[in-house]
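Contributing new records

If you add data, match the layout below exactly. Sequence lines come first and carry their own label; structure lines follow with theirs. Keep one chain per record. Anything else will be rejected by the validation script.
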Amino acid sequence: MAGSGLPSLGRVKVTDLAPSEGLPSDSYKLSVSTLSHSLAQYSAAIIQFPACDGALLRSALDSAHLYFHQRASYPAADVIHTNDSPEWCKTSGYCADPQLWQEAYDYRPGLTPNEPNSAMEFPPAGLPDVFALLGKAARDILDAISFYLNLRSSPFIEILDNVPLRNREISSSVLSVCCHARPSFQGAQHHNLGTQEDGQLVMYPDHEHQVDKSLISLIKSDKAGLHVRDFQGRWILVDGDLGPQEAIVYPGLALYQATAGYINPALHRTEVNSMQSSMFGRCSLAFKLMPKSMTSLSCSEMRAAGHGVEAQFQLPVPVDDFMQRSHPTDQLFNRQNIQCFNFPTAQDGSMKPLMRRRKTDQRSKPLPPSKRLRLEAQRVLKERVQEIADKKGIKLRFCNLKECENHVHMLDSPCANIRMEIGWPPGVPFVHPHDLPNKAKIGFLEAYEPGWTATHDMELSLTEPGQASQHSADCTCNSRIHSFISTLKCVLRSRYFLSSLISKCKH
């Protein structure tokens, strides 16, 4: 059982995390620092909403009490919930998990009907408003984490739902109205529950825990009971002193994958005590910001920002495959020794959004100039492809490299129309620029940067810090990088260059 002590989780106002144009304000940098430190130390943080939003959350929880109170005592077979289902992005309406003594009503815009099917059963009230409130907060939190990691603004926009949803689109993100241990719910007879000597009912033994496969999860409950494992492996109660307008936020597995393991997911479990005195059980609102099913989780943005990406994160992972496979939690936390989430403070007290890297950690070692230059070429190419697509009104959906090798020989492949409209060369797989082979990138450098050779590239990569000529070599490399980037951006304005570059890839 978790300890009773309450940790000092970071408290951040959601209004302070809203991004704005121009330089970041001191309140924004302080909020990002507080949020990041709390996520690193406790895998959770507390988000504070305005008072008017707190009233909306409270009324939604009250509506949840009434909804579950009028439900039948035992769920029908067709609403029993199963984890890792192929239909993970299509759950909607009431479902139950007797093994966990949990019931939920999933609200998913685009799929959940606005009108109830039965006149005798009404869904919880206010779900569209709560979905919009928590969804906006989750996106701001995701952008704040990206700011800390020194990524481009809104780097995960390609894997998130449109705002607002387009016609006939179904939301990947979901708002679940949950109820634990409702006294009138009889599914617990199949669950092995332990009873303490003082008569308190305890759920989830020490070896049982859960991990969300979301990017960001936001939880607002009416009673304490959510425990999260912290940086030191201790189970801590994170919602023991929440105010009426406060909620818990923690990262999920999808963010762990998309950030190459730099953001650890939260392992959590729910403990329900003294349920004899409660007639409704423990109700909560759980919003999960999910990636779209037809996309892939890639660490290209992390590489572009100069972060080290380990072998297990090198290849993009289709979201559908990621959601349906199991993830052993004992293999997740591979970055426990990294000092992270710290904004150094200058002598004058001002905050600087700089990342502290450990010199002793080889995985955080700065990339060689040649690698940085190839990443810049990749970034500009991606922008050029997107520019052409935007002008033609095409929504880009890149294929998996292996799958698209078969697509190029099919007339009715998923990417056939896109390749034809954008002018993609025949016979070349329609893949994201980060999937271009390194040989193709080196060939590109030799063709469009006078004097650049593979030998020169190798010499740059072999240059080690501490050599006598390091300073002069860095100056020369930086000069070449700035010169080449300027030339590259000019060349990429020609559409002919795009076709020429991609034609080189098939060789």
